[in-house]
């Protein structure tokens, strides 16, 4: 079937056009310097364009389109929906590096509001979740600057944040904006935040956040479209907070509130997950003493004022590493995933070993933050069989909640019947039924439980991406193994959490072509 590629409208924002330029440049394998040479301009000009900090004339847009031999940024009628055309029967080979953590990045962007000094986040991913938060920060007066290679982000906050000017549209496209509560309660007696968005995974209450933050004087009232917050001075002295939910973001919000509350705050039932550990290490670099990092009890010695120039390297993403392991298994490929944070993958690998996966681990080394343990994982082609017990997530150190959907693909590859229990979210399991369109045998027992019967002879399909990040990536990975050519439409949700995934898979032997319409 012939596909028509429609370019985005010229009314697209500079930030959106910048991302299209960057994607098209990387698709052609060009560096910023090489594109600059083709256009007879400077690398810094290309950097400004890709960062969304440069308004472009129609003439310049046409010049860039011609240089990149791409219609993706040609002005004209049409929308900007991102789609992928995926050739199946793929075998991958080589090695691929695990990129930095999405969930750590968004927490650190929020935490940068605590610091009146300069914050540099190294290795931060160019993903839509980060882009949305940067847009929110820019709108309230924070100065953000990308490095010339696009890998590092410098953040400088003003003395007074312009919260009335907050970009509500950007804020509503990310759930991470709820982590503004913890920092902002230190600087404003009253403020409001738009309702948080993100993946469609069912009801996710913010009550645990509000219960914890009341101990720091924050009161929140839900109104139409916004949370309205007021703050009062909290009682001085030591405090103990028992979280009613061992959630990652509620722990992070509590840590940011405690970091600038003088005295000692003990947080019990805290999440020790990877993004929380990243935040703890970052806060210690700001001068906040934290005891118990990596455990469920954190003791925070708060400071009245934080003003430190700090450079922090974000640790690698265990969820992306698990995605790449799944890509190797479903395509029956030999693949090495480098810089994998092993502490947050040990349960997943233990289950896969029981299922018959042949893999090896290299020697341990440290991430750029000096804290997180990394290894290189080599996956060999293997014949998997169903796991004897149900597969279900647990708070760290259990199987990561975000890694559970990949086991639906893995179970569909394995011989036999597997029960998957997604007890956390009401609506995520139902999105995995989309695998049936590609030939899988997935049965929904109830909103939380799936039966998956394998092995699967995957077949190609033209379909719309599920509105949840991890199930959408599961569909993409299954399409790599399908007979024929598949189309996955409206893949913005994948770009929320993965940087250049299609381009990086192509370097391993995949054949994935982005197009817009």
What does this structure look like?
- The chain is of the alpha+beta class and 517 residues long.
- The chain has three domains: 14-77, Orthogonal Bundle (434 Repressor (Amino-terminal Domain)), CATH 1.10.260.40; 85-99 and 317-516, UDP-n-acetylglucosamine1-carboxyvinyl-transferase, Chain (Alpha-beta prism), CATH 3.65.10.10; 102-313, UDP-n-acetylglucosamine1-carboxyvinyl-transferase, Chain.
- Helix content is 32%, strand content 23%.
- Strands 2, 14, 15, 16 and 17 form a five-stranded mixed β-sheet that branches. Strands 21-22-1-23 form a four-stranded mixed β-sheet. Strands 4-5-3-13 form a four-stranded mixed β-sheet, covered by helices on one side.
- The model is unreliable at 1-11, 72-79 and 198-204 (pLDDT under 50).
Key structural traits:
517 residues; alpha+beta; 434 Repressor (Amino-terminal Domain); UDP-n-acetylglucosamine1-carboxyvinyl-transferase, Chain; five-stranded mixed beta sheet; four-stranded mixed beta sheet; 23 strands; 23% strand; globular; disordered N terminus; Cro/C1-type_HTH
Number of strands: 23
Proportion of beta-strand residues? 15-25%
Compute the separation of the termini in Å.
16 Å
Rg calculated over all Cα atoms: 23 Å
Total helical elements: 18
CATH class of the largest domain: Alpha Beta
- What overall geometry do the principal axes of the alpha carbons give? globular
Low-confidence stretches: 1-11, 72-79, 198-204
Biggest sheet details: 5 strands, mixed
Q: What number is the mean pLDDT?
A: 88
CATH architecture of the largest domain, by name, is Alpha-beta prism
Named CATH topology of the largest domain: UDP-n-acetylglucosamine1-carboxyvinyl-transferase, Chain
CATH superfamily of the largest domain: Enolpyruvate transferase domain
Number of domains: 3
Work out the helicity level: 25-40%
Give me the secondary-structure category: alpha+beta
């Amino acid at each position: 079937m012939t596909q028509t590629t429609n370019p985005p409208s010229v009314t697209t924002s500079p930030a959106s056009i910048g991302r299209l330029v960057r994607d098209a440049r990387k698709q052609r394998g060009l560096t910023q310097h090489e594109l600059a040479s083709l256009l007879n301009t400077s690398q810094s000009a290309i950097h400004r364009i890709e960062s969304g900090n440069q308004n472009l004339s129609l003439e310049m847009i046409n010049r860039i389109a011609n240089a990149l031999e791409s219609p993706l940024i040609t002005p004209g009628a049409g929308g900007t929906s991102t789609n992928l055309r995926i050739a199946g029967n793929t075998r991958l080979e080589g090695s691929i590096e695990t990129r930095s953590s999405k969930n750590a990045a968004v927490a650190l962007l929020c935490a940068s509001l605590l610091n009146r000094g300069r914050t540099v986040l190294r290795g931060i991913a160019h993903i839509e979740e980060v882009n949305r938060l940067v847009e929110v920060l820019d709108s309230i007066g924070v100065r953000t600057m990308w490095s010339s290679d696009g890998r590092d982000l410098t953040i400088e906050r003003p003395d007074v944040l312009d919260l009335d000017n907050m970009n509500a549209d950007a804020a509503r496209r990310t759930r991470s904006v709820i982590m503004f509560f913890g920092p902002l309660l230190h600087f404003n007696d009253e403020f409001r935040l738009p309702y948080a968005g993100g993946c469609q995974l069912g009801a996710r209450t913010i009550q645990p956040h509000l219960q914890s933050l009341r101990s720091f004087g924050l009161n929140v009232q839900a109104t139409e479209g916004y949370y309205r917050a007021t703050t009062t001075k909290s009682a001085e002295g030591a405090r103990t907070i028992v979280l009613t939910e061992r959630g990652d973001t509620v722990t992070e919000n509590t840590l940011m509130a405690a970091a600038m509350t003088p005295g000692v705050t003990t947080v019990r039932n805290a999440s020790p997950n990877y993004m929380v550990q990243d935040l703890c290490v970052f806060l210690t670099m700001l001068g906040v003493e934290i005891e118990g990092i990596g455990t469920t009890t954190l003791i925070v010695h708060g400071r009245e004022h934080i003003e430190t120039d700090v450079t922090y390297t974000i640790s690698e993403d265990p969820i992306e590493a698990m995605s790449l392991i799944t890509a190797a298994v479903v395509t029956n490929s030999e693949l090495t995933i480098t810089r994998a944070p092993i502490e947050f993958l040990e349960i997943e690998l233990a289950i896969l070993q029981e299922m018959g996966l042949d893999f090896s681990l290299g020697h341990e080394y440290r991430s750029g933050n000096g804290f997180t343990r990394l290894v290189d994982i080599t996956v060999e082609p293997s014949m998997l069989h169903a796991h004897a017990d149900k597969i279900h997530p647990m708070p760290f150190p259990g199987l990561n909640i975000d890694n559970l959907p990949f086991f639906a693909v893995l179970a569909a590859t394995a011989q036999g019947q597997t029960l998957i229990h997604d007890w956390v979210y009401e609506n995520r399991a139902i999105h995995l039924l989309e695998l049936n369109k590609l030939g899988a045998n997935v049965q929904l027992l109830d909103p939380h439980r799936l039966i998956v019967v394998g092995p699967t002879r995957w077949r190609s399909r033209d379909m719309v991406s599920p509105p949840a990040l991890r199930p959408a990536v599961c569909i993409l990975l299954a399409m790599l193994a399908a007979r024929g050519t598949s189309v996955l439409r409206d893949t913005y949700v994948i770009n929320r959490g993965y940087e250049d995934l299609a381009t990086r898979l192509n370097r391993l032997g995949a054949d994935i072509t982005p197009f817009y319409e």
